[in-house]
Every structure is written in C-alpha cells, then in structure tokens.
Amino acid sequence: MVQAQLLPGTLDLLILRAVSLGPLHGYGVLLRIEQISGGALLIEQGALYPGLFRLLRQGLLTADWGVSENNRRAKFYELTAAGRKRLHEETESWNRLSGAIASALGPQPEEA
Amino acid sequence: MKLFAWISSVTTALFKRSCVSDEIQEELDSHIQLRADDLERSGMTRRAAERQARLEFGGVARFKDQSYEATGGSFFERLMQDVRFGLRMLRKSPGFSIVAILTLAFGIGANTIAFSILNGLVLRPNHLPLPRNLYMVEEGTHHFQQSYPDYLDMRDRSRAFEGVLAFNFAPVGLDSGAGSTRALALQATGNYFDVLGVQPFLGRFFHGTDEHGPDSAPYVVLNYAYWQAHFQGDPGIVGRTVQLNKYPFTVLGVAPPDFRGTALFFIPDMWTPLVNQAQLEGIAKLTDRGYRDTWIVGRVRPGVTRGQLVTDLDSLAKALEKEHPKEDDALSFALARPELMGDYVGAAARAFVTGLMLLAGLILLAACANLGSLFSARAADRSKEIALRLALGSSRKRIMRQLLTEAVMVSLAGGAVGLAGSVALLNWLCTWRPVPDFPVMLPVSPDVTVYVVAVLLALISGLVFGMVPVRQVLASDPYQVIKSSASGVSRRLSFRDVLLAAQISLCAVLVTASLVAVRGLVRSLHGTFGIDTANTMLVHTNLAMARYSIEQQPMMQRRMLDAVQGIPGVTAAAYGNSVPLDTNTAYRNAYADSTTDLKESNATQVTEYDVSWGFFRTAGTRVLAGREFTLQDDRSAPPVAVVNAEFARKVFGSVEKAVGGHFKVSSGMRIEVVGVTEDGKYININEDGQAAMFRPILQAPSSVTYLVVRSERDPQDLTDTLRRTIQGLDPGLLFSIRTWRQTMGPSFFPARVAAMSLGALGVLGALLSVTGVFGMAAYSVSKRLREFGIRIALGAQRAEVLHAALGRTFRLLAMGSVMGLLLGLPTGKVLAFIVYKATPWDPVVLGGVVLTMLTLGLVAGWIPARRALATDPLILLREE
After folding, report:
1. Predicted-complex ipTM score
2. Which of B63, B65, B71 to mutate to test the interface with A (most CBs of A within 10 A)?
3. 3-class SS at B284?
4. Does B1 touch chain A (CB under 8 A)?
5. Which of chain A's residues have a Cβ under 8 Å away from the Cβ of B36?
6. pLDDT tens digits for B828-859?
C-alpha cells in the first residue's frame, strides 16, 4: 500500500479528529489515525507528542493519567469545548481547500 | 481561558522543570511499552518487540525536547543554555570581552550621568507637597526679580493663586555667643511656610500673623543641616536669642531635614521674615516699587489651569502698569518652574543638559557602532563554529538567539560597570560645592528612574549591536564555509568598514567639541575683562553686619583703606561696593539728559559700581578720557560718574561727547560724566556690550565693600598681614580675603563645567575610537596572518607588510576623522552660547583634532602592526 506523507500543519487536525471520537492515550491516537485514514497516512510515532503538547498548551485538549486496556499507566487526552470548535472550523476550511484543489487538479473539460 | 492555560503551563514548566521532563519521559515510555505489547501479541519475543517499538518511535531525546518546547517552558531553559554557552565563549576570549564590556560601560556611564543630571535638574520636582502647583512668577523685562510692593499687589489681587510668597537672599553674620560666623539667610514673607505646606521639625515657623510692619518680626528658623553643624542638634536652641548682624533674633524652630526651600540649589542656612530685611541688608527697600530683588513663588488654586493663571497675571500686570506708570512701565509676568530659580539659572541649565544628553547619546551611538563591528568580526571568526552547528541541525533562529544572548550579556555587564562608575561619580557630584562660600549643590543623586533608564539603555544597545551580524549569519552557507578553510577577505567596502568610519567620525565630533570647549575656556581665562586681576586681593566686608551706623561707615572704610595702603609691598588699594564679575552686581536705569519721561522703555540698562578714589588705577582699568574720582567727589560736590565706552556710545553717541555731558537716573537726578573707561565684562564673561557706570562711593555710600589690594607680595603672606591689619581696627568685624581670581569663580563656573564635561566626553570619544580602530586592525591582521607570512617569505619589506595590514584601517580613520571634523564645526556655534570665545575656526583646534586622531590611530594600530611584522612564515606553513 502506498502511504502519503503528511502535509505540514495537518497533524494537529488529525489529532483533534482522532480524539473527538473519545478519550485516547498517545499510542491510541496513533492507532486511531491509522484506522480512520485506512492506513494511508504515515506518521512518525514520536512526532505525535510535540503536537499533543502543543494542543494541550493551546487549551484544545485536556489530559489525565489513567490505566490502559492492558493495565499500563498512560496519559489520556480528551477534547475541550475550544478543541471541538477548532476541529469544526479546521475541518470546514480543509474541506473548502481540498475541494478547490481537487477541482483545480481534476480532469480538464473537453476542448471544444 | 487560553491565556490562563498558557500561563499555567508556563509556570508549571518553569517551577516544575524536572517534574515536567519526567512526565514526558514517562509518557513516551508508556507509548513504547504499549506498542511493544501489540508487537508481542503479533508473535515477537518481548525483547525484539521492545527493540522494534523503539526503532519505530524515532529519536526519543529529540521528541522529548520538542515536546518540552511545545509545553512553553523551554524558553527559560534555552536562555540558560545560551547564557552558559555565552559565558564559556566570552571566557575563551577575555580580551574581546573586556574591550566590549568597557566600551559599553563608557557609553552607558556617560548616558547615566547625563540623564541623572537631566533628571535631577529638570525632570524631578522638589520635595514639597503638590510641587506641580507651584510656579515662580518672573518679571519679564527686569531680570526676573520683583519688587515688594508689586508682590503685595499680586498676593492681594491675584484670584488664580491660593497663596503667593516672596523671598530673597541675604548674607548675614550670625553670633550665638561664640563669635560671628557668616551664613546665608533666606528672607521670606510670613506666609512662606504655609503656602509651601511644610511643618517644622522642632518649635514653630513664622506666619503672616507675626508680621506687623518693618522690623516687627525678629525671628529665625534654622535649616536642619545648619542646626546640626552649628548647634550640634541641640533642641534647647528653640526660644534662644542669637545675634544676626548684631540685631537680636529669636530662634523659633528648625525646618525638617529634607526642606531646602523651593530651589534645588541656593540652599539657605536659615529663614528670616522679609519684613526685617532692613536690619540684615542695611537699607530699607520694602516700599520702593522700583527696587526689584525678591523672587515670587505662588501656589495655584486647585482646578485653575495654566492658561487662566496667565490671563489673571496679565491683567494684573496691565493694571499695575496703569497705576504706577513710572516704576511698572512695561511690566510683564512670566511663569517658570521654581526648582531652577526660573529662567535665572534654568535657561542655561536646560541648554547645558540638552547639550550633554546629545553628546552622551553620540557616545552611546559610537559605542554601539564599535561593538557592532566587533561582534560582526567575531561572528565572521566563528563562521566555522556556526557552520558546524548549522550542519548538525541547529536552526538559524537558534544561532541568532544565541548570538543575541551573548550581545545582551555583554551589554548588561557593561551597563552594570558603567552604572556603578556613574553612581560613584554622581554621589561625588552631590557633595561637590562648586562655588566657595555659597551653598550651591547639584542634586543629581540617582533614583529608580535613573537605574531603569540605564538598564533599558544597556538592553537596547545590546540588541542594536547584537543585530549587526544577523545578515552575516543568515547568509552563511555551511557547506562553503567548511570547505574553504578561510573566508576570503572582501575587497569592497563592507558594512563593518562603514560602521568603523561612522564610529570614528562620531568620536572626531566629540574630540572637536571638547577641544573647542577647552580652548574657549583657556582663552576666556586669559581674556581681557577691563580689569587686571593678577596680583590683586579682595577683602570683602559688610559693616552693617557689625552694626556700624550709616554715618560711621565711610569713616571706618577710610580707616581700613589707609591701614591697608600702609602695608609694605602694597602698590595700590581702593574699594567699591561691588566689583565687575562679582555675583552681586546691581542694575540701574540711565536716561539721556534730554529724556523727560523717565519710564522703563526709554532707559538704558547699566550696571552700577560705587567706587573710591584710585579705583581704576588699582583695578587696572584704563581711563580713555577724562579723569578718575578723587577725594573731593563727595556729597558736597555735584554728582559725577565715570562711564564705560559702551555707555558713552549708547547714551551720548561717542566717547568724546560723553566727557562733560550729563545723564539722568530714575530718581531724576542729573549726573555729570567726568571720565570714560575701557569696556569690560560685568555680569558674566559671555556678555557683549554691557553698559556700566561708576559713581564715587562718597556720593553713593554702601555698607558692603570690596577692598581691592594690589601688591608685589605673595598672596598667602599678604593674606595674613591683611587679616592682622583689619582685626587690629575692629576685632568684631567679619571679613573674607581672597584673590580676585578666586572671587570670579562663579563667572567662570558655567564655562568650567561645560569644558570639564565636554573634555570628559572628548576623552571618552578618543578612548572609543582607540578601541574601535584597535579591534578592526587586530581583526584584519589576524585574518590575514597567512597572507603576511607568504608576503614575508616572498621578501616583502616591512613598509609593504604594514601597508597591507593597516592601510585600509588608516584610510577609514582618515575618512572618519575628516567627516567628524566637518560635523564638529557646527557644534562650535552651539558651544559659543556656553563657553566664551568658543570657535572651531581656530588653527589650534583644527590642528589639535587632526593630531589627536592621528595619535589615536597610531596608538591603536601599534599592537596589530607589531603582530603583522612579527609574522613568522615557518609557523604558518607548519600550521597548515
């Protein structure tokens, strides 16, 4: 399967999306992104954490230590109200952008 | 919300640095374990799974760092790293660090001192309650001071003022039972302390209710410092009686320690009621509307604007002019701050402080240019290190920040050194008594504002010169730098060269300015003032202090003169109520004989001196026409005067027409001119064309006299003889003996201060250009040692090596000096206001500047030149 490199700036959006479906620890976020993207996106595992801390600092996520399904201590991330709002805005703007780019790059109309 | 989150994360990061770091580590570990769990489940051994998980994760340390950075706390962490690294780098090149820190210390120090003086003299109000409500009211057309009757009208009729006070100064002799000592009394109106709103430290103050007409309030309030010094802080002094000029005055109380009156200098030793002025000054003048010698300070009513106040005073001036057309002709009131005695001292002080600030700013600019070129040279020297760091993955931003941190560290260290030096100097200035016998102080002690300004200046200049190498670093290509071992020396004019030339021209401006000032001072000290002060002593007495009656005074003065003339070695002696260039010279109005309306606007302002027979011969003043005064010019003879040439030209048209002619004074009296003298300097040494007249002291008696004694004897030796002679006449008489040169101190004070400070700034400028030239020369030599080695190996002569090593630096020096000299010429015009005869169009000044800059270049180029010449080609070949 061909994997795509992430565009700069899209990691944060993916993290927000992944966490929006329910609280997750870091590794869980990674798995969830792989899952929802159908394994098409390549993320360097460690690169996830600076992103998580950045979102935490912006107040878009909250975090709490808990226990994972296989009984390991892990830090769980959850979306805040601000995070949810940001996800909504970013998704819309992303859709507009990708729609525009897709139509620009789409099949050329037939020459008359 | 977001702000709060940020703050909390930053504070957490700051205070729980290790805690945050551990937590990140734990989280990353947990991630790897979870991944390993998954891998194990897919059939790997635990060890293989953990290894695989680690590999997949990537550089733990890097992501930990990045994560830590993302929490927002790492700014300080990195700052500390940069500081530590910067300290290491600065320690590695101590010569560079010391030169840089000292350069900045001079720049910051000069500015701290200049700002402190600005702050102390102009910005900071006095310590009184609501000081901004206090205004000094100056008389616009008659030299600032006001008459007592005009004051009374202002006090009673001005609606904008809540209270108006008046004061003047009187030197007094104070006797508390242990002999008489001289002191300065401030004679104030009864409401003085109430209007200012101060409370006594001990006893009570005098009030308006204590005044019941002339000489009705023989009270004195002591200055705290004077009380400590002369009465050992004895509280029992309150209620005691002391003798002021042999009149009994009761000590009412002591003023609080920080109370010094309304002005920042002229600190009185005591306060006495102005209604008793006749006792202390010897003549009664409270009823004379034309006698302007008091200062007025008013406290404006709350809510009254400055504009309303001006309108109020203007209408009062108009009314007074109408009521008293003779004395109050062309009367006008102007507002000023009381701290500097209005424009009396204020105008000159402000001009001086502005000039000082400008020059100090130039120093700092030159220091920044100097450091900028030093830092960019250093950045070039470190290009390999920087290239290596870039190659290893450091960002340009990070390197910039590191270099800036280093620059700011240097600037803060320099600022600290400069501040320490300037605080020491300022504290000395605060205790300095520039004018002997007169309580002038410079209240320039640094306060919080000064410290803040110094630190800000240091930070800003650090950022300014730290930014100079930015372009250089941003443009550096690590590949190129590491490949070629030495970066080639650029042949075209680089930014560094421009900086050096700019710095040198700034320094040349300073050197020019200081030479102009110093030269002006030297000239003014040797200028002609219409008097010959060499080998003359002045004996100052005030017979009123010893309570001689008006009738006794001329006799006693005559006895003193005779006794002094009898001293062996004394070639001439005479006396006058004042002498030219003394601080207490009086102004009079003179009118042409044909003038019938004796109002202010028709008058010629002249300085008046009442002198004895033989005065001009003794003072060394040439008489151009007519005669000197004789013993016969007394009350029984018609009133006569000797005038100076300027007076003759102004009132009579020419010197020839003056002799035998008449003029009038305000009282209407006609005076005959019997002689004309050469022009001189009368109030200050900068003045031009001041008219002066001399009256025989037998026709215009005075209790205050200056005995002028010209002799061939040693001044010290003569002083002792003079003292014995006068004490032999009256042991109770207070007098002071000084050389005439010494008493002219106050006249030279502004020029001397200007020359001193400009001289100091010039030396600073010279030092800065030495460090600048030295830095650049040393740098260019060190960069090209290999080239010199090759040149020497190929047989280059010393002169050729020197030319190659320093030619460029010296061309820059020459360019900068010429530019600075051209820029410095206009400053001479500015200086001419402060320093007498200051002109840059003076071969000595021009030659001096060229010579100074040349010497500085030689001094600064000496060590680098030696190094270039001593290059040993063998060592260089071995190094490669």
Report:
1. 0.86
2. B63
3. coil
4. yes
5. none
6. 666 666 565 666 677 778 888 888 888 888 88
